[in-house]
Amino acid sequence: RGLGLDVLKESIESVGGKIRVHSKRFEGIEFLVTIPYNFNVIEGMVVELAGKQYVLPLVNVSRVVLMEDLKLWDSESDTLGRLKDSIFHIVPFEKLLDRRYQGKFANRSFGLIFKSALDIIFTVDAIVRKRPVVVGKKTGSLAGQEWITGTTVLMDGQPSVIIDVSKVINNIRN
Question: Rounded to two decimals, what is the model's pTM?
Answer without folding.
Answer: 0.70
